[in-house]
Amino acid sequence: MAMMDAGLTATLSREFASSNNSVYEKLRIYKTLETCYFIIAALVIVLLLFSSELIAFRWLNLEKITSDEVSFYLHIISIEIGFRLLSNFYSGGFIGLEKQIKSNMYQVAYGVVRNGFVLMPIFFYPSLRVFFIWQATTTILYVVFIRFDLSYTLTQSFSLFFKKPRIEKEVIYRIWKFAGGMMLISTVAGLNTQMDKLALSKLLPIEVLGIYTLAFALAKGLGILSSPVSVAILPRMTALFTAGNKLKAVEIFNKGYLLVSIVIFSFAASMIFFAKELIWVWTNDVHLAEKASVFVPWIAMGTAFLSLGNLPYNVAIANGYTKYNNILGISSLVITLPGYWLLTNIYGGIGAAITFSFVQVIVVIIFLHIVNKKFMQLSIKIIFFRNFILPILISGFVTFMINNAIIFEGNRLTVLLKIGFTVACTLATNILILYPTKSLLKQFLKIKNKFT
Of 419, 131, 165, whose CA–CA distance to 274 is shortest? Predict the structure, then answer.
């Protein structure tokens, strides 16, 4: 799904956010890209439907579940993936229009219904079939609803579908260069971030893939922490850069990046030091926590840097620049493609985790340096020492000290409270040391005025 996006979502967001496009131009772009997206989603569904048996019977190393069952589940998942592609596209439209609150409300509601309300049917019918059918049906209904609202926002008319879906050559000619660059970025990013799971699924028993994926799901929370800031500032930076207001755009990036760095490394430090405890609190399974915790430190560090790459990536996208991202991404494949397969074959799942972490750290540091040099020209002291080295050192030190100072064996609630206390102390220490005093005072006065 990550690779088949073809860069159209990012293209739609950028064109909607650009101050150079009129409402009529935005509508033309929307119609053209939506038609392209319908075709891509249909192709994805057909491709996965026809390849499900190949995956189930010839790729996965199954032990406790039959290939026929897995093939059936993949049929359902293929339909959902096609519609998930469409949902991402429409969400990108709302973000480009700077309607992040509406987009987030929809995604929260969708997540609650898809992943929360599913507990009701599987309580009475505990079956994977029921689980996957519920998720696919929810996604289809969500796409219909969000598409209806976005179309009304643009056209001020009620209609589920355009009467004449079309692809305008003029629109394609104008955006093809940026869209093509984004498509290459999506493909390379998909390979770099998913190849570890692909290698695990082929070389090791599927149980190892499940444990690795559990650890990855925990670390993926770091991306959720950075996403709100990234989503919020992308349209604004696009509008500022396209309008020639570079100083204001760089100011927004500078403040946002420091905030994201503090939050990401504060949580990442607790994930690294409390990996086993976090998984135990989550799953209530000590055996599973012991197995999955060995992956978490490596994956958490890699995911932390991957999350910190979102903001410089947004700066490049705001300027319509994809060249260096593609050069760097393609170059990194020289490490990832053989690295995942060789190290997984030799060291098992931990080899894949180490490769993932190493590649993300190196790529993000190099990419940040390139973007900074070309578009922002911030000092090395600010961009690296303040945003990387200091938050890492402070977060590691505070978390280590609390971990050794407060030692107790309790129930899951008390362990969770200890971890929460550690994160809060780490955040507070980072903010007090790194955040400008004037900014803190200004925010404090704003909060005080609201309650007085």
Answer: 419
